[in-house]
UniProtKB/TrEMBL annotation:
InterPro entries: AAA+_ATPase, ABC_ATPase_HisP-typ, ABC_transporter-like_ATP-bd, ABC_transporter-like_CS, MetN_ABC_transporter-like, P-loop_NTPase. GO terms for molecular function: ABC-type amino acid transporter activity; ATP binding; ATP hydrolysis activity. It holds the Pfam family ABC_tran. The keyword Iron does not apply. Keywords: ATP-binding, Nucleotide-binding, Transport. CDD domains: ABC_HisP_GlnQ. Gene3D superfamilies: P-loop containing nucleotide triphosphate hydrolases. The keyword Ubl conjugation does not apply. Residues 4-236 form the ABC transporter domain. This is Amino acid ABC transporter ATP-binding protein, PAAT family. Belongs to the ABC transporter superfamily. The lineage of its organism: Bacteria, Pseudomonadati, Pseudomonadota, Alphaproteobacteria, Rhodobacterales.
C-alpha cells in the first residue's frame, strides 16, 4: 500500500487559486476522506495526486517519488507518468463504462490493453474482481442492464483488477439514487478492511465518521484541519 505526501501544493486556474499551500500526509493502508463545501478544492487536490491536474508549485510524492515533475518546473515524460499511474486506481462520480461491452469485458479490457494479459488471463482476473464487488452473477450484463450502484461496482472492479497500491475516489456515490449508495460504500469498506490506501472525496459523513482513519477538511482552497474523524467531525 502506498503513502502519499502532499507538500505546499498550489494550483491556479488562471488568476483563481484553487489550492493554497496544501500539506497532507496520506498514510499507507488507511482511508483518508476529503470533506468540505462544494468548490473548496477537494476534487482538484485528489486529481493532483495522480497528476490529472497539474499542480503549479509544491510537491506530491508517492512512496517517495515525485509525480508529474522530474525536478521543480520540469515535467516528467508521458511515459514515466503512465508508469507511475499504473499503481493508482481511480473511481469517478460518473461510472464511465463502455456501453457496448459486458461487465466482464469492461473489467478485462484494461488488463488486455494496458497490462498485456491474454484474453483468458484477463477474464479470469476480471471474474475475481467482479465477484469481490458482489457481481458474480451479473458479469454478462451490459451497463444498461445494471443499476447505478451495480455500474459503480463494475467501475471499482475495473480499478482493483489492475492491482493498484492506491485508490482515489471522487464522490463515488454522488450520482446514485439514495437507496443504491449503501452497496457501493459496503464494497469500499471491504477494500479498506484489506488495507488498501484510499483517498475519498465524499459528502457521506457517516462513511467519513465510521470508516475513515483520517478526515481532512477543506475550505476555499485551504486545508483547514486534518485528523481522526472524532476530532474533525465533532460528533455529539
Ligand atoms: P470541490 O471538489 O471541493 O467541489 P473543485 O476542486 O471541483 O472543488 O473546484 C475548486 C474550485 O476550482 C471551484 O471554484 C471550481 O469552480 C474551480 N475549478 C475547478 N476546475 C476548474 C477549471 N478547469 N477551470 C477553472 N476553475 C476550475
Ligand atoms: P463537480 O462538482 O462534480 O466537481 P464541476 O461541475 O465543478 O464538477 O466541474 C465539472 C468540470 O468542469 C470539471 O472538469 C472541472 O474541472 C470543470 N470546471 C469546474 N469549474 C470550472 C470553472 N469555473 N471554469 C472552468 N471549468 C470548470
Amino acid at each position: 500500500a502506498s503513502q502519499v505526501e502532499i507538500r505546499k501544493v498550489n494550483k491556479f486556474y488562471g488568476p483563481f487559486q484553487a489550492l493554497k499551500n496544501v500539506d497532507l500526509t496520506i498514510p499507507p493502508g488507511k482511508v483518508t476522506c476529503l470533506i468540505g463545501p462544494s468548490g473548496s478544492g477537494k476534487s482538484t487536490l485528489l486529481r493532483c495526486i495522480n497528476f490529472l491536474e497539474e499542480y503549479d508549485a509544491g510537491e506530491v510524492r508517492i512512496d517517495g517519488q515525485l509525480i508529474g515533475y522530474d525536478a521543480p518546473g520540469r515535467k516528467m515524460s508521458g511515459r514515466k507518468l503512465r508508469e507511475m499511474r499504473r499503481s493508482i486506481g481511480m473511481v469517478f462520480q460518473q461510472f464511465n463504462l463502455w456501453p457496448h461491452m459486458t461487465a466482464l469485458e469492461n473489467v478485462a479490457e484494461g488488463l488486455i490493453r494496458v497490462r498485456g494479459l491474454s484474453k483468458r488471463d484477463a477474464q479470469a482476473r476480471a471474474e475475481d474482481a467482479l465477484r469481490k464487488v458482489g457481481l458474480g452473477d451479473k458479469m454478462a450484463n451490459h451497463p444498461s442492464r445494471l443499476s447505478g450502484g451495480q455500474q459503480q461496482r463494475v467501475a471499482i472492479a475495473r480499478a482493483i483488477a489492475m492491482e493498484p497500491r492506491l485508490m482515489l475516489f471522487d464522490e463515488p456515490t454522488s450520482a446514485l439514487d439514495p437507496e443504491l449508495v449503501g452497496e457501493v460504500l459496503t464494497v469500499m469498506k471491504t477494500l479498506a478492511a484489506e488495507g488498501m490506501t484510499m483517498v475519498v472525496v465524499t459528502h457521506e459523513m457517516g462513511f467519513a465518521a465510521h470508516v475513515a482513519d483520517q478526515v481532512a477538511f477543506m475550505d476555499a482552497g485551504e486545508l483547514i484541519a486534518a485528523g481522526d474523524p472524532a476530532s474533525i467531525l465533532h460528533q455529539p
